[in-house]
Amino acid sequence: MSTFIPGPHLLESPRGRDWPRLPAAPAPAREPVPPSRADVVVVGAGPAGLAMVSALWHHGVRDVVVLDRGGRPCRRFFDRIDLLGQRVLRSPYEHHPGVEGYRDCELLDFARLHWARLTPVERREVRMAQAGHRSVVPVDVFEAYCDHVTATHDVGARTWRATVREVLPGRSDVTVRTDRGTVTAQHVVLCPGEERREAPHEWWGGGAAPPGVAYWDERLPSAGERQVVVGAGLTSAHLISNALAAGREVHWVIREPGERYQCADVNSKFFRPEGRARIGNVGWDDRLGLLAQFRRASIMFEFRPLLERAEAEGRLVVHRGEAVTGVAAATGGTALVRLAGGQRVGGDCVVLALGTTPETGRGLLPEEVVGERDGWPALDERTLAYTYAPRVSAVGAAAGMVLGPAARNIDGHRVATARAADAIARSVRGGAPAASPVRAEVGAGV
């Protein structure tokens, strides 16, 4: 039996192409700070926030304020991609922040509309997607599509730069406090995405990283001739391939027994209704087990030939299956990683790619509202509203215990958006959300 392994050529696509854009409407004069009232406030303007505002637009809910640290839809998402030098997305064409159930231009439609601008390799991927097979999406195409969705649903005009400090649910509305004022709304949707996973405290005692050590989403220090990467997933693979392309020797520390190559770190069945039903039909402990089983660090098949060849040639040294006991600065401006077996792996730069953790609302909402259990918030299964604050909803990774592993993926955002937007639109049109249960039930299982 033969196994199809896509070639490394799929990792390369042009960046910075000049895509046709919709004629920009004259920007209306507006205050430099967000308005004090709105029907809905969306916290976060990443792909989940973009999908949420677009869905509300189709429901006729237009009095929406989007609050985002960057002040521009999907800015942080693409800034992170650019830091990694990433040219293609792991998500296939059917995963996009568009809206289900409406006559909207989907990502695949957008690529076909701009067929002449695609390379032969990119055109083949579009044909693969049309035939129902796995496909690779160029970042360039995805970014242009997000701009298109932003323009057609007037998302940019609804987005303000602000850092949200606190979300305080009330009986009839919700107060959102930011560094640029306060907004009161009937409903609030949290779409803050995920934050990088910090290094364990024992690695260097907590606080700022030692000199010569950086996280994957930071500007790297001067890399020199030798780079150390700690991590087992796709981010690590991008960092390693970039360093190899720059002619550096790379040491790769994988705390797991070995690399895990596959097309996605979430089984495709969880993107289908029957997969989501599998999550919904089991208890809390079984859900935790499924999340642990089907959400593990992995690397796209396309990287395998590159990394295996580099290891065979000695340009890549892989340290497999050893725990990290410490990370420290060393003499001469270098840094080193201490392994459990006693080995020390040093380099001019150590980059930590330890994954991400979902933002669950903790730190924004009162602790009793989050109702956190095993790191997950208590959400209504039908509407994704917080069980103890029905006027606040979560879309994105925080919905993992409701939607399963796919909640952290762009397609999972779209599924979550469809549930939350429908419930919010009904409420805005006149139906009040369900009353909060008694406080004593906080933390109850599913």
Report the mean per-residue pLDDT as an integer.
88
Number of domains: 2
N-C termini distance = 43 Å
Number of strands: 20
Q: Quick recap of the structure?
A:
Helices cover 27% and strands 21% of the residues.
Structure description:
The protein has 446 residues and is α/β, with parallel strands linked by helices. The protein has 2 domains: 272 residues, FAD/NAD(P)-binding domain; 119 residues, FAD/NAD(P)-binding domain (3-Layer(bba) Sandwich). The protein is built from 12 helices and 20 strands. The chain is globular and about 65 Å long. The C terminus is likely disordered.
Fold blueprint:
Layout: E1 37-43, H1 47-58, E2 64-68, H2 75-84, E3 88-89, H3 107-113, H4 120-130, E4 137-138, H5 139-152, E5 159-161, E6 164-169, E7 174-178, E8 181-190, E9 194-196, E10 213-215, E11 226-230, H6 234-245, E12 249-254, H7 273-280, H8 284-294, H9 304-312, E13 316-320, E14 324-329, E15 335-339, E16 344-347, E17 349-352, E18 356-358, H10 367-370, E19 385-386, E20 389-394, H11 400-403, H12 410-428
Parallel strand pairs: 1-2, 1-8, 2-5, 8-20, 10-17, 11-12, 11-17, 12-13
Antiparallel strand pairs: 3-4, 6-7, 7-8, 9-18, 14-15, 15-16, 19-20
Helix pairs in contact: 1-12
Features:
single chain, 446 residues, alpha/beta, FAD/NAD(P)-binding domain, 8-stranded mixed beta sheet, 5-stranded parallel beta sheet, 21% strand, disordered C terminus, FAD-dependent oxidoreductase
